[in-house]
Amino acid sequence: MTSTYTNSETIALHAGYRSDPATGAVAVPIYQTTSYQFKDTAHASRLFALQELGNIYTRIMNPTQDALEKRIAALDGGVAALAVSSGQAASAMSIQNLAWSGDNIVSSTDLYGGSWNLFANTLKTQGIEVRFVDPSDPENFRRATDERTRAYYAETLPNPKLNVFPIKPVADIGRPMGIPLIMDNTAAPIICRPFEHGAAINVYSMTKYIGGHGNSIGGIIVDSGTFDWEGAAERQPALNSSDDSYHGAIWTEAVKPLGPIAYIMRARVVLLRDLGSAMSPQNAFQFIQGIETLPLRMREHCKNASAVADYLTNHKRVSSVIYPGKQSGEAKYRANEYLNGGFGGLVGFELQGGKVEGQKFIEALNLFYHVANIGDARSLAIHPASTTHSQLKSDEQALTGVTDGYVRLSIGIEHIDDIIADLEQALETIKS
């Protein structure tokens, strides 16, 4: 089923699937299978030759995953998506699909700690250089670009800095040079649509807001279908040169009859085939359940987070509040420009007593869970300097926005009075 709906609440329930053709089941079935019966040898040959899309092996494609991919693509306004085993896998594959040894990408410094480690260390061992630049000046991306730059990468609402990224200016710098902007939109599903501002590719950790219940690990890559890969032949050899791993296919040509899906098709039939970071059908089903309430949950996350930011702003033990709705100047402009319907569910704040107070506050919480996650229906809290960003050097922590006294809150959908009551008693606990 192709969705013609434009409202996220309706798309989240109906896009990509209507009913099971065999049984009429309204809920998407969990297709717990590894393999699929071909109709005949000709049918099998067409599938393997990419003359026809269909199921071959669940490592590459599965009907439950397919429904999930179509639904997320519809929500983002993209043409296709690829579900993978984790958000980290999505981030890595989004780059590996374009960059080879000797190539580079330019990335914002404002990153989740796991992404920073992936970019600064693991990709380096694969011969891919990541050049980190300050996103406060979009021109920094142009300055760091050379003939081997294959992509720009950033987070919409970077965790933990929470300064909204300048999507359009950076996308506008890259497109004329054949450089796509890849946006990690994990912290801002529904409230931000990066494709509308020029981004070429979105990635998500679906573990966070999309799943929403802390029960499954997964990631997804979404292709806008609007980037001119063929026109950037010299800049993008991965999609425009003969691929020996797939019968010498040139991806921009091989999949043209199937639509503008060269990028996502290569990721599926080369990287997913070879690296094997497949999502399980069970997890795909869980994410579909999460998507159905995502627009409703995001409203509550945003509303509650705004109230928490107001409360913390007026608290004597809090030296500063980090929240898009409390920013000023250019940061406030970007928040208003790119976020629609709220400023997200994340709130950071600085405690006057530094690391000792930060850890003491975390241990005093009762309602909030102390876990390494965001985007759960439940409220969560963590002290990044001693946990999620502890692998980074002190100067790297500073670049990402982490200080000793920084506490990150992921505000859930509980009643706001109960959320604030827990924060209040924890702040009272750390009084000297």
Oligomer: single chain
Which CATH architecture of the largest domain?
Answer: 3-Layer(aba) Sandwich
Label the structural class.
Answer: alpha/beta
Number of domains: 2
Number of helices: 15
Which residue ranges are poorly predicted, with pLDDT under 50 across at least 5 consecutive positions? none
Which sequence of SSEs, written as H and E, runs from N to C? HHHEHEHEHEHEEEHHHHEHEHEEHEH
Strand order of the largest sheet: 1-7-6-5-4-2-3
Largest sheet: 7 strands, mixed
Approximately how much helix is present in the residues? 25-40%
Residue-averaged pLDDT:
93
Shape: globular
- Provide the CATH superfamily of the largest domain: Type I PLP-dependent aspartate aminotransferase-like (Major domain)
CATH-defined topology of the largest domain: Aspartate Aminotransferase, domain 2
CATH C-level class of the largest domain is Alpha Beta
User: If you compute it from the alpha carbons, what radius of gyration comes out, rounded to the nearest whole angstrom?
Assistant: 22 Å
β content, as a range?
5-15%
In total, how many beta strands? 12
Distance between the termini: 61 Å
